[in-house]
Amino acid sequence: MRKRHGIYKSPAELRLMTRPGSLTAASLAAVRAAIAPGVTTLQLDSLAEKAIREGGGVPNFMKEPGYRHTICASVNQDVVHGIPGSRVIEAGDIVSIDSGAEFDGWNGDAAFSVVVPDPSRPGVVAERQKLADVTEQSLWHGIAALSRASYLGEVGSAIEDYIETHPSTGSGQGAVRYGILEDYVGHGIGRSMHEEPPVFNYRVRDRGPAVRPGLVVAIEPMVTFGGIDTFTGEDGWTVTTSDGSAAAHWEHSIAVHADGIWVLTAEDGGAAGLAPLGVTPVPIP
Ligand code: MG
After folding, report:
1. 143: CA distance to ligand 1 center in Å?
2. What does each C-alpha distance from 269 to 167, 247, 280 come to in angstroms?
3. What's the pLDDT score for residue 1?
4. Ligand 1 centre from 122 Cα, in Å?
5. Which of 113, 155, 161, 236 could staple 132 via S-S, CB 3.0–4.6 A?
6. Residue range 170-212, pLDDT digits in tens
7. pLDDT at residue 5 is higher than 60
8. Cα(81) to centroid(ligand 1), Å
């Protein structure tokens, strides 16, 4: 569900989005530090909730009708919207965690994927780690494109170009392409977690809205090791690849302001991720 509030925020509104962004980042950091074999996804959920509430925020995923958790935890062939529960994290799993915080009526939304070490299956771990790395790097390339873009559509083109030029295995004719999900895309974010405009992770005909100060978007490439067809499980939420291939998901919420861009859901504003791409994030004035 997307709500319209006008897609360009005022400088004062952008400043109000830094706190929910930081709380979202804190919740993901807490989860990331705890991911290990033997931990359940419900335990991860409670760590995220604690981090958000201790900072005075509210887990905004709980505001989605019918959803009762702070995070989505999607393991292996589950791409997004996995419900935390009794599932135990195992060595070799690729785990995608999505979290969001609301503070003072404004929202943050971010996600990461991580591969749990498994010395007994180095090939599987390396394969999944590359999937996670390519997905993360496609996000940073999309964010870098946003910093230079005239129109939002340039973000999706940059993400697709990065993924297309980094195949999963081999090279030339032996290269296996990753799949970029098309069933789900990024979004504007502000007073609602999901707002206009959609943010595609691939090239589309429509160039999209102008990128100018006040635009705040959640960019979130979802990438699979195989096909892009998915289905929603019997729980009504979990999105799984139809071919059973592993998937990764990375996301950040980013503000465009008068002096540059700022990654709201990264503690350093995106400095480390963007430095190799020649982009320096600028704090919101
Ligand atoms: Mg999102």
Report:
1. 14
2. 29, 26, 9
3. 47
4. 31
5. 113
6. 555 666 789 999 999 999 999 999 999 999 999 999 999 999 9
7. no
8. 10
